[in-house]
Amino acid sequence: MTRGRGPDRDTILAASRGGVITARTLVALGVPESTVYHRCRDGGPWQRLAPGVVLLCTGQPTADQLVIAALLHGGEQAVLTGLEACRRHRIRRGPTAGGSLQLLVPHTRQVRNTWFLRVDRTRRLPHPVSRGGIPLAPVQRAVADAVRLLRSEREIAELVSDAVQQNLCTVAQLVTELDAGGQHGSATPRRVLRDVRDGIRSAAELDARRLWRRSGLPEPWWNAPVYDAAGRFLGIADAWWDDVALAWEINSYQWHLAPEDYAREQEKRARFTAVGAAVLPTLPTRLRRQPRDVLAELRSSYTAAAARPRPAVRADHPAAPTPSQQGGSTPVWLQ
Question: Where is this region: Disordered (predicted)?
């Protein structure tokens, strides 16, 4: 800006957060309202991200700039939730936030949605967790808010199972959050949570469980630790039929982040085979593209395993018996 007409650029940038600033702050610095308006017009050097929120440059805003703009738009008590909060809690799997953010504000505030932001007014405003100066909803609230807006069971499974596997939250905490938030959008997440509670760790394993239900075979133990006769740990079977010592392995290179993870899976299968356990490997893509073929292979593998003497291996049941194994009814919170 010209000397005598207001603050210089460095002063304005220093008052911003990553180049994002409120119009009110600009005016307080001495920038006339009319100047703010004209600079945000098409072809101007600034742009309006939300009502009263300005980006001090042109071009596509970064993800961080959109988050800051959302928080400035939401006000002092605003808390970031949903998929973007999950990413900042280091949940790696599941869908990306894309261009849509979720924000929680007190129910007494009137804050409008914007082109990149969904604002949820709530009486249950959580105490935020700060990550890099950004107030985030606790993990269980962020995940619960995210899955209510998802329609894909597979995406929900990836998000929820990653949070649970990293010990960022428990299934019980997620159920509590869903209960506290009401029934809207919770039916599919509750179904997935039942699967995760029973040991499902990924969307591929969710597909496997759906396919197993059509097989007519007994229910396996999902993600069961397997040991040899001397008690040496061999690995975790994705699905394990203990009566016939059969492991169904779903993992593939696509489901591992590094080559060493894939190598460990291959070594595990070799250990299973070396002690006489039967192993059926299945590519995750085949569960959806060739379900009939996979079912035939699964039934044949079980029959062949049952026909041989059972090897001296044992496995631990990774979770309490499911309602179908107990012969009981489904708990109310999972219906």
Answer: 305-335
Neighbour count for residue 126 (Cβ, 10 Å): 18
Whether 70 maps to a domain, the answer reads yes
Both tokens of residue 62? 């970064």
pTM, entire model: 0.81
325 inside domain: no
Indicate whether 1 belongs to any domain. no
Residue 54's domain spans which residues?
17-61
The model's pLDDT over 113-139, given as tens digits with 9 standing for 90+, comes to 999 999 999 999 999 999 999 999 999
Instruction: Please indicate, yes or no, whether residues 83 and 181 belong to a single structural domain of this protein.
Output: yes
User: Which residues, other chains included, contact 67 with Cβ-Cβ below 8 Å and sequence gap of 6+?
Assistant: 80, 84, 101, 134
**133 and 221 co-located in one domain:** no
How many domains, the chain? 3
Q: 212-258 pLDDT, tens per residue?
A: 999 999 999 999 999 999 999 999 999 999 999 999 999 754 444 45
Task: For the sheet with 47-50, list strands across it.
Answer: 20-22, 53-55, 47-50
Strand partners, 189: none
DSSP string for 185-208: T-HHHHHHHHHHHTT--SHHHHHH
* Distance in angstroms (rounded) separating the CA atoms of residues 335 and 318: 23
